[in-house]
Amino acid sequence: MRFSDQFEQRFAEMLTHYPTKRSVLVPTLLYAQDETGYLSDEVIEELASRLELTALDVRNVISYYSMLTTKPRGKYNVQVCTNIACMLRGGEELLQHCEKKLGIGHKGTTPDGLFSLEEVECIGGCSWAPAAQVNYDFHENLTTEKMDRVLEGYAKKVTA
Amino acid sequence: MADLVSHPDEVKVVSRRFGMGATNLDRYLEMDGYKAVQKALGMGAEAIVNEVKNSGLRGRGGAGFSTGLKWSFVPKQAPKPKYVLCNGDESEPGTCKDRLIFEHDPHAVIEGVIIAGLAVGSHTGYIYVRGEYRYLLDIMQKAIADAYARGFLGKNIFGSGCDFDIYWHGGAGAYEVGEESALMESLEGKRGIPRIRPPFPAVVGLWGGPTVINNAETLASVPHIILGGAEWYANLGPPKNGGTRLFCLSGHLKRPGVYELPMGYNLRKMIFEVAGGIPSGRALKAVVPGGSSTPVLKSDEIDIGMDFDSVAKAGSMLGSGGVVVLDETTCIVKFALRTMKFYQHESCGWCIPCREGTDWLKKTLIRFHSGGGVKKDIDNMYYLSENMLGRTFCPLGDAAAMPTMAFIKKFRQEFEDHLDGKPCPFEKAGAAVMV
Amino acid sequence: MADVNITVDGKKVTAPAGTLLIEACKSVGIEVPSFCYYPNLSLQGACRMCLVKIEKMPKLQTACTTVIGEGMIVTTDSDEVHQARKGMVELLLGNHPLDCPVCDAGGECELQDMTFSYGAAESKYMEPKNHKEEQQWSPVVYFDRPRCILCYRCVRVCGEGMDVWALGVQNRGVGSIIAPNKEDHLECEECGMCIDICPVGALTSGAYRYKTRPWEMTHVGTTCTHCADGCKTTLGVRRSESGMEIVRGDNRDKSGINGDFLCIKGRYAFDFANREDRLTQPLIRKDGQLAPSTWEEAFELIGKRFREAREQHGGQAIGVVGSNRTTNEENYLLQKFARVVLQTNNIDHHRTADFPALAAALKGKPGSTASMRDVFHAPAILLIGNDPTEQHPLLAWQIRNNVRLHRAKLYVVNSADIKLRRQAAAFLQIPAGTEGRFAAFLAGDDSAAEGLGPVAGANAGESPAATQNQQTTLGGFREQVRGEQNLVIIFGAEIRGGDIASLVKFGSGVAGAKLLCLADYANSRGAADMGLYPDLLPGYHPITDSGKFHEEWGGVPQAPGLTLPEMVESARSGKLKALYVVGANPVGRFAIDPFVFSQSFVVVQDMFLTETTALADVVLPAANAYEKSGTFTNTCGDLQLVKKAGEVSGSKSDFEMIVRIADAMGADVHKLVPFGRGTTADMGQSRGAQSGEADRHAVWLEAHGLEPKMSPFDPTAILDEIQRLVPGYEVSRLNLVAGSDQHTALVGIATGAAQDPKLIAPATDNLFSSGTLGRYSRTLNSVMENHSRQPVESEVAAD
Ligand SMILES: Cc1cc2nc3c(=O)[nH]c(=O)nc-3n(C[C@H](O)[C@H](O)[C@H](O)COP(=O)(O)O)c2cc1C
Ligand code: SF4
Ligand code: FES
Q: Which of B80, B413, C61, C588 is the S-S candidate for B209 at Cβ 3.0 to 4.6 Å?
């Protein structure tokens, strides 16, 4: 199992931050997922053995956190918030728009593997609602037109 | 990233350096940066605790507990290391303020953590930032590294002979992890299940050591208190509600945004003056005053001061400072449903009443909103919420029950208008019912 | 600890400081309901059933997590409290399938009981319940998520109790689910504790599910027939076409030495008894083939041939092999029959531990053996050799839980990295075969230390003491152990003969030390204690000093007899004219050349056709330990009742068969079994639901150890004699009959003739095997096959 040097460096550094090895687990899982796209059995086994945990332990933790996934998803994960503040300002319509535009539903992935869509809970963009995140990028004060541009921007990134 | 707003009524304390490039350590130092820590180093633990106590600073995470008092619960001597834990898990719907602090003034949080550490005799702090805020974690990481580079962190900080370490830590998506004991579990690499209390974190916390847990805004306020003095800070707000607050105004508003206003600021003014009122000339229907878990206020209940005690007197809570404004076109049933959908999704599932209760409330509300409701559902939902209230393992169950009860109590008619197969009176023609 | 006074429902309660409120309430008979609370497991506070009102507290509090405080005033049954509990049950039932009529737990379900108590059966919900398909996690474990109430008992008993950690919780919220360690199946010790501890029918047993309803079974508490630890088990029996069928083994009776514990064998491996290839008719070899015969024909033939052998060639021409799985009464009777009727000391059994050496070394040191209960309470334990997790599952449980709950110090010395190392404060790895030398070293022989190294360090476990032990030297280790008090010294069959004496010597230097010798089968200790030796009478009396037995029995042959290998040799040279094998399979076990016995008349009593029956002239179908009454002595010396549960018609107990053979030989049966002297028992005519049903009635009597001693087939008559003549067995009959374990002291009579340590052959059974019995257990076989299975990809992700 190979991760990037940056991952290894950060992993090694983080281990020194805590009195127990296991404490690095949650952020490490997310960093690993950022590199591998999802938490495969291989990644799980690897991290379990590094942290002296059982694979079961690691799976228990993964399945608790909503950002972690054991299934592959698109290169760009479009996360549309529909929680109260966003809902009041068109978050649901925005989600519907994305569904139509991408042709996929909640937790779906486009056939080309470029986009996944997810309806998410409050992402802390309430005062700039409606808000969405694509991977870790925030996009706020969205309208359907603005959303289109956002999606096009990501699509272009790949072809460029 | 997020747009900043401003209003003449604002009293900028925590937001003083917003938009001023304070992520740059040199800029920060030009703006009184790290002066508070240096002052605190000369004060002694007890004096710091007293200063914070007298400032009337109450927890900005939601519960509004006196920060100084909380610090005083940490035992002087302890067999295990003591820790300071900054709660930057900000996930309460309607809340988006800690985000601005991390983005614009990360060193203030670091200072706050160090001062808390000095107050309780701890030498290690952790700053936990929710996983979705990756860019803030990166900012925080850099700020910490910069502080180390200057010797503000690490061994013998400011030549005081005192050591202090701070580590950053990222979450991975879970509202419940914002609850203090679940936060510690998460930091220890586990599922975010709350712990049994007592013992409280101040006595047995992270890895068994006494731990002070404070919200990021709380901690970012501390340096200002140390520099400005308890009296100054206390006098910014009404008695027992010292200082200012970052209010996150959202929903049907002309100028939504995060405004720093003195504690006790009038809610009506906040909505109609500071945030510019409601667009398109629509009427106000209701306000959720402190994040999604706080009971809703009707439009005639908003002539109140926004401080912990006044909002409590009005039957709700100041909570996390998330003010969500609903205009007359909002369907309360739909709003209640979306709220419950959140709690159902975020319940950790540990205890029966929260796990099962949120699920049944959500299911019932879905059916109810789509026209399948029957009369007894309304009482059933109320009864169910009552059975959750005060009986769950942690306050998440209460957070789900309280708003539901308020929606039903205050807007019963609207629930009844959905009965007997009637379409939702607020649904725009043709729009699908979305859940 | 100081006592604390509280008031519960107006009653004054005093309990030690630190007591949990729920336990304090229980102590005065106030039952606070609970699902997630389970004594000796970590606290959860999850089910919220135990909410009570405590004065001065605004909210209801969980009695399961509240530690009592002086002056606390508690109300456990107000309207508010009642409503809170009712509310919880309603919430649970909302998603509960209510398939009680077909649920295995129906009638034994805590949720059912709770619903009954709180009247929460009215459904408030119109929504469909969350559904999820049932899963099979192993041949013996099934999981039905909709029935699960998430009390986490299974997770905790598997992790904290078993140290297996095969169960976890996945997802969150209403999607939370108990998950097995290999995604869609379990890889574990298959103990089934999770099933037993489940308050509802979410975890069910592959061996029992859908077989019957709990109330249709008769429950018989008896002793497990597999390993030498002697767990108390409850067998559920039901009438079947061929007698009484055992349908379930479980742990309803928590009063036994095993408390909550049972291993896979105790819980499921009763199924050998139900096999259709059980022998149900005597077989006599005719024209080279074993053919069915009548009992009369068989006994007559045996009686004639044994008598001929004795009269023509003398007792030394007859050999007897006894069993490690027959009762004490049967073993005693067998050796008495051999010595008195067959007039031979040629009697032996499959020895798996050197009890004679221990008895000899303990001469003059009464009270020096540890009971199974001691292992749970001792402040310090030294374990040399063996791998209890595999071979003594209960002992391992006791050790683990003693460490966990009482912080006992465990010292492990082993040639392998055994699992119990995880609990050890210090661990020494020594080369295989040097255990005996290590014993000598402990006893002070420093020269024995050579070759014991290299010393692998201590357990790197949690305790600082352990880390500190990293540099442990042999000497340091010895000093540390010597400094303990009330140490229990446990040793496996690696240590024999003089090395046992060394351990005893070391033990006598440690205040309050006790010893525990590990043997392998359910009644190995009993076989040894009852004198299945060619040179030792019951209670390890040397044959040369037969004193009271001589008197009582009217003569015992004086010369020591032949050991098992010697019998084989004697047969080979044509001297052994007859061989009587009771409940053993020496040919299979010791790979004996079957042609050796071609000139001997061989009689075998067994349940199945084995390598040994293959060369028998007569085979008698035997009942097993679940089908008869008597007593077993576990490896510690704890004496317990064996009660009749199942019955397969056509078989007879070994006891009865021995008596019948003696009778057929013309012996005075009354002398052999002194029956008809004693007790008149409760005949049970008035036993409520059981009355009027003759066979059930008999089961009841036997199950309660109340067989009237009016029959020559009554083992209690022999128990009387054992209690009279075997030193250490003078325990309370009352307690024994009441179902309690009674520790028998190992009383050394004489330093005795040294036994040949080479005669000891450990059974090398593991968790999933159990000698010949194991081979006939479908469950054990299916579990073994299953454990080589590859994991299958499946879905576990959260929403
Ligand atoms: C379900 C739940 C979620 C919470 N989420 C947060 C959060 O995201 N951020 C936060 O600061 N406090 C949160 N809290 C409050 C914390 O438990 C804790 O009271 C707070 O961090 C203490 O800091 P303070 O005294 O400075 O407010 C939450 C509480 C509950 C019950
Ligand atoms: S109330 Fe119970 S289920 Fe809900 S989040 Fe808290 S502990 Fe978990
Ligand atoms: S028994 Fe107390 S909460 Fe379950």
A: B80
